[in-house]
Amino acid sequence: MDRMLHRLVDAARRWSILLAGLVLIVGGFAWATLSDRPSNPTPTRGEADARQTSKSASTTGRSAPSVPATRPGSNPDATRPPVPPRTDQPARSTQARHAPAQRPSATADQRGATAAAEATTGQSRQASPSSSPTPAATTSSGDPAAGRLVFRKCQACHSIEPGKNLLGPSLAGIIGRTAGTAPNYDYSPAMKGAGIVWTAQTLDRYLKDPAAVVPGNKMPFPGLKTDHDRADVIAFLAASSAGAAAASARPPPTSSTPASTPQGANGAAIGYVADAKYTLRSGIAEGRMVYIGVGGAIDGKVNPVLTAVEGQVVQLTLINGEGAEHDIVFPDQDAKSPRVTGKGASTTIAFRPAKSGDFSYFCSVPGHRLAGMEGQFLVTPRPAPQTVVEADISREPDDVPPPIGKRAPQTVRVDLLSVELEGRLAEGTTFGYWTFNGKVPGPLLRVRVGDTVEIHLKNAADSAMIHSVDFHAAIAPGGGAAALQVEPGGEKAITWKALVPGLFVYHCATPMVAEHIANGMYGMILVEPEGGLPPVDHEFYVMQGEIYSDIPYGQHGSAEFSVEKLLAERPEYFVFNGSVGALSKLHPLKAKVGDTVRIFFGVGGPNHASSFHVIGEIFDKVDLFGGLTTPPLAGIQTVTVPPGGAAIAEFKVEVPGTYTLVDHALARAERGLLGILHVQGPENPDIYNGVALPGAGH
């Protein structure tokens, strides 16, 4: 018994020595790690909250990619994971192009402004915020979250990201700055000489009537006419300015490792447009190793819950905050980052969750997950299909004016109305279209060579934008657009003479021109030659366009325009006549065996050319590029039409069946670009003898 007791005491003594040694080792490591941290430590939850002097202002000053099932209409900051701010980031490196960690604002939601403050088209480029806002400058009673939505109205013209400018200067740090003083931007003389310091009061006056406050400025923006819109957007700009000033005042870390190019799950560098962006920093909090959120709603939170909608692209940046080796793994998404070693090192990965569910993320370095580096990744399902009651904006293909025939030249009046409306993009999905006469494309106009065309352009009173029209058929400055920039509620008229026969595109030409076209403001005008065109049985009007939506193709809800995707030339949708199914489910083309068919085909674009093809047919005649002064081509299978270009294709249908209209860049059919020509009538076995199988062919 005594021997057994002695053995137990000896074993207990050895275990206590071992445990004490382990405690000393771990404690020494922790002490070395903590003592190596700079005076601006890795934030704990409380420290991060204290560092943000105005949580609401800092949060709304950041961009927030669309992630949750909730669509716009609720508070975006409450439903979207934010893009991380510049604060507490490593020194600028090669990550600047891709990494959200160094961008205070990057999405289309916040970039394009309501032309606020210094917004004159063709004005300067802003490199960085220049000063903190003055007390008077921030005394706005508006709601920054609501102002963020108002700010979208001119998203193609302005950014609140320092140094990032579109047609107008960046508005980062605008509060407290003198008008016309941002570096590296060529201001108009009127703005340079304005001598205005932008405060809440001067901004309110300018946004109400820009031309009255700065006479002679060239900004194509009519102003914000409601008090609450101006107050809200000023509050948003003030919050953004405060966040930018705080970020610029914070010294960078003493060292950093350049971040890697974003990678996919397989480690290969990829190009993409992220729907949800997060930044996490490794650190020690609550006595354990953790991930700490950086930016927006997750800022300072320990192992924050990350969310996304299935099918969205998630971008995650991991920053090494304390020097130990780390990585991050999303096992259910087959996504894993490279390891980051050394304080300030960072890496960025991107992946697309394929299914909804409650998943986890963690550090795969041995022992780190057990030490506390684990969090929740919640993927919500796509919203269920919903009944769409919004307008069908697609123009029917047989909406074609009658032929001119043989008549003398005359004056032809054309009335165009620019209308902004929510319309059906696809089943369960709507989009904010900008249109001529409420449809996409705008009406097919028809005149003859020698006619005088009298254009009356009216802009609907409830429009948010100035609109115009540029006729490729007109020999005039800007195709007439130089004289047809029409403010909401206004109307202007010009005349021009049709000198050259052919099929020509027209489109809105108000900056940013590509945005106006992409949102639906394009159409065509046919200038018939003297004597007209040869008669056919059917004439159809078809135009191809691109939709740059903020939500992925096929996701249901209310889609909004994405300027980032436009500039990257990466549309979510390709469409005939404005929407998915416009020329198949809604308004298919129809003919009978033996009929002759003429298709007036054009590409609104604004970026991609078309290889127009009718599967199962050969074009008997093609007026290439829409020209009618040269002989047509014959026996053509596919017609190349550039953006802003047109073609006239004719053929005779001799066999009954279903014929498919496509761009022969056929992947675009998977993004909505498909039309149908139904041909009815007797079989013609001399030309074709076969039985079409259901679902066969393409």
TrEMBL record:
Keywords: Metal-binding, Oxidoreductase. The keyword Transcription regulation does not apply. Its EC number is 1.7.2.1. Cu(2+) 2 binds at residues 470, 472, 507, 664. Cu(2+) 1 binds at residues 467, 508, 516, 521. It comes from the Bacteria. It is an enzyme of class 1 (oxidoreductase). This is Copper-containing nitrite reductase. The lineage of its organism: Bacteria, Pseudomonadati, Pseudomonadota, Alphaproteobacteria, Hyphomicrobiales.
